[in-house]
Amino acid sequence: MSDDKKYGLETVSIHTGCGPCPETGARTIPIHQTTAFTFKDAEHGANLFALKEAGYVYSRLTNPTVGALEEKLTALEGGSGATCAASGHGAQLLVLSALMSPGDHVVNSCKLYGGSVNQFAQIFPDMFGWQNTTFNPDNAEEARAAITPKTKAIFVESLSNPEGVVADIEGLAAVANEAGIPLIVDNTMATPYLCKPLQHGAHIVTYSTTKFLSGHGNAMGGAVVDGGNFDWLKQAGKFPRLAKANPNYNNIIFAESFGNMALAIHNHAVGLRDLGINQQPFNAYLTFIGLETLSLRMQKHCDNALTIAKHLEAHDKVAWVSYAGLESSKHHAAAKKYTNGEGGAVFTFALKGGYDACVTVVKELELFSHLANIGDTRSLVIHPASTTHSQLDSDGRAKAGAGDDVLRVSIGIETVEDLIADIDATLAKV
Hints:
The protein is an alpha/beta fold. Helices cover 39% and strands 13% of the residues.
């Protein structure tokens, strides 16, 4: 489309990135299942390798099918460019590899998906020398207090997994701007249907596209969306890979040569080239198609989740429910500001029967699949303390909102009365 900004989210999610093929007339995006692309001549090949001309060389760097998904995600978030990766974890590694060096520091939310907690607390320090300090995502002052001269980014989930805490994006953006560092927001749980972090001051958005963006549980992927709103040249001393001469490409300075797309281009030209964590064309195709129904699915997810959260809140076997869509939630005011008052599809609740009751519930539920994923059309359940957050000690699990008595559910788009009946029948057994 000529100008995505003038169209609504639903239109962009369907039309951006794919018009009719000018050669065949095919209306949907083709799967470019190829490793490499031919050059028109020697000069064309040389220009592509020198980043003097846009095009396709090798599918580890760029691919037309993956590129179409990147175009759609850029438009949906209102960014300047995007880079798809093999997974959400791959996206996090990709973006931080452009910003950080050994000994550098990141301030990250204490309310993260369990795998991300381990990535930031264990793998990044041990393998790359990237240190971290945690903060509560709804408290920007905690983030400010954690910043050091070596801090290169603030990282937060817009809606935290599993607890559903709504981040103070505007407050954190102000702190990041004051410190001269980017605010990175993982928008996996909210999606651009509920929240657009760049509109609230964030600088970079990341995704596990595996979840709600694809929506069907069939395609792994991640993405980094460059907001195009951070002045890398002003902070050249902190971010030399983006704002100083790069010997990999004849000493070009990415921030000078590519302007507000500096991070997006670097993520392709250096990040994907050297880390090899590119998204596969078939996965990109499945996600691209899934995005066409994003608005319909997310609203159904939210409607079902709110109905079930209200039901559980009144249930005598349930100790508490953490869902920002509930008016009783301490996060509801933030949800009204950042996610249109919605709490998304994922939330946690605690059973009075504790650990043993949780184990029984995940075993006995019939319509809820017991697995380590979220964002499927099907309803899902997991006991974080024994699975996704099991590598943390009891204090760490409690801090992450994943105590021994807690269940996480990802509510699907089934008939909500059927889901409630399944829940009630199962809770009667504990």
